[in-house]
Design a protein that fits this description.
The chain is mostly helical and about 475 residues long. The protein has a domain at about 285-474. Helix 5 packs parallel to helix 12. It is built from 22 helices and two strands. It has helices at about 1-5, 10-25, 35-55, 70-95, 100-120, 120-140, 145-180, 185-190, 200-215, 220-230, 235-240, 245-260, 265-285, 290-310, 315-340, 350-355, 360, 365-375, 385-395, 400-425, 440-455, 460-470, and strands at about 345, 345-350. A two-stranded antiparallel sheet has the order 1-2. Residues about 465-474 have low confidence and may be disordered. The protein is globular and about 70 Å long. It starts with a helix and ends with a helix. The protein is about 75% helix and about 0% strand.
């Protein structure tokens, strides 16, 4: 019995933060944004450690269970949350705004996302996705100008309700055929091809469409773009950095543990939406004059790159996807850290005309931004290059020249969009005087740059080590 409580520590700590922070909010007289940031970092660090320690244990394995893959992805998500919680406090302190509700909603979202990543039953998955959508909407509304976000919130509610209904409809079809919500039982049921019919494929498509929506793959990406356009910086950063790895874990679990019989249908479906996202994201970024919105389209492009390059869900392929996602998100984290430096007269700027010539006043941050852009685009000698190389190499080994050509064309459009950023920051005259950035921002940038170049010392170590940790998972 005591052992079960230890195994449940990640979930208990996520809930405990909500209780403790509520007491602090109610009874502590002297509290600032740093108070809740520190508290959130302590708890999320505990969650990350406990998730790693109890990576292969579960009290309710028929409802949720971690594998080596989900542990890696969840652990990386918690690490990104830990860093962003620290950086977000700088925004709240500068704006002199309370942070209690922001951090509480983030922990609620982490709690729901952890079940999306580890679900082994559609009962858990359906409930978790529903709460994810609810907490997303709550985060959209974390803005002092309600009129600015109410339209975005309304559109998100409509679209998220539709895709939640799609998920529930798909689950009901699967249940009507297999008489079970358990991944293991459903997998066994569909292992016999006679049990598969047209309604089975429709159900799988309906379930996956919900993940495609949550991952903001085109053409279901507009909620994410609108979110970034109108949301406050801490919320935009959290939504962009933390959930994607959790969703990838959920998709991997779904395909490997529940729907391996449908892999020949699922992979082309993901490829199609991946290619649409690749081109829509890269081409749309070329027409944006707001740097946050531009990078939101580039994030859509990067997610498209991930799913367009999937050929199978073998151990090696998933490891390559994880490595690419980690490099992309570490670069995006660096970009959002620089966003905290686009501050003039305590206002955070994002329009190209406002941040023009940033390098003349902040050369260190501009140099870091350049490195992050190089890594984001997969250019040598950054980690982005070494992370994208295995994906391309795997496609070459399978002679999939059509995919390779499409990926390179998308990359050219994305690089062109990034050249607009470089030209604006480095080769335009200064448009504003920028406030002095917090020293912590410079430290975070330095550490992130070090991580991006760390792979140069041994490019094979990252892949090899992860493959060793995963082992022969079936």
């Amino acid at each position: 019995m005591l052992q079960n409580w230890f195994i449940l520590l990640p979930e208990i700590l996520l809930i405990s933060y909500l209780v403790v922070s509520r007491f602090v909010e109610s009874y502590r007289a002297n509290k600032t944004a740093r108070t809740f940031a520190t508290l959130s970092q302590i708890f999320v660090a505990g969650v990350m450690v406990c998730t790693i320690v109890f990576y292969n244990k579960s009290v309710f394995p028929n409802l949720w269970h971690n594998t080596a893959f989900t542990t890696m992805l969840k652990g990386a998500s918690y690490l990104l949350a830990l860093i962003w919680f620290y950086l977000s406090s700088k925004w709240f302190l500068n704006k002199n705004r309370p942070s209690y509700k922001f951090y509480s909603l983030c922990f609620c979202l982490l709690f729901a996302l952890s079940f999306v990543a580890s679900a082994t039953s559609f009962a858990v998955l359906g409930i978790a996705v529903l709460f994810v959508c609810i907490f997303y909407n709550k985060l959209i509304l974390r803005h002092w100008d309600f009129d600015k976000v109410k339209t975005v919130s309304g559109l998100y509610l409509i679209s998220s309700t539709f895709f939640c209904l799609m998920l529930i409809g798909g689950i009901l079809i699967i249940y009507s055929q297999s008489s079970s919500l358990s991944y293991e039982t459903i997998r066994a049921y569909y292992s016999t091809s006679a049990n598969i019919n047209i309604y089975s494929f429709i159900a799988v498509a309906m379930i996956l469409s919900c993940f495609i929506f949550l991952l903001a793959l085109a053409p279901f990406h507009l909620w994410y773009i609108n979110f970034i356009s109108h949301g406050v910086l801490p919320v935009c950063g959290f939504i962009s950095l933390v959930p994607p790895l959790m969703y990838l874990a959920g998709v991997v679990n779904l395909v490997r543990l529940c729907f391996p019989a449908f892999s020949d249908f699922i992979i082309p479906m993901l490829n199609i939406f991946g290619f649409i996202s690749l081109f829509v994201g890269a081409m749309s970024a070329n027409y944006e004059l707001d740097i946050r919105k531009l990078f939101s389209f580039l994030a859509v492009y990067a997610m498209g790159f991930v799913f367009a390059s999937i050929n199978n869900f073998s151990n090696d392929s998933i490891i390559f996807l994880i490595i690419f996602m980690l490099s992309f998100l570490s670069s995006l984290l660096g970009v959002y850290t620089v966003f905290l430096g686009f501050k003039s007269k305590s206002e955070y700027l994002s329009n190209f005309s406002e941040i023009a010539g940033f390098s003349h006043l902040r050369p260190y941050m501009s140099a870091a931004m350049l490195i992050f852009i190089f890594s984001f685009m997969g250019l040598a000698p950054t980690i982005g290059f070494f992370a994208g190389l295995p994906l391309i190499d795997e496609l070459i080994s399978q002679s999939d020249w059509l995919k390779i050509t499409a990926l390179f064309i998308g990359m050219i459009f994305a690089i062109n969009a990034c050249l607009h950023i470089i030209r604006n920051i480095w080769f335009q005259s200064s448009a504003n005087k920028f406030d002095r950035a917090d020293k912590a921002i410079f430290v975070c940038l330095l550490l992130n740059v070090f991580f991006i170049f760390m792979v140069l010392f041994n490019p094979d170590a990252l892949v090899g080590r992860l493959l060793y940790v995963v082992g022969d998972i079936k």
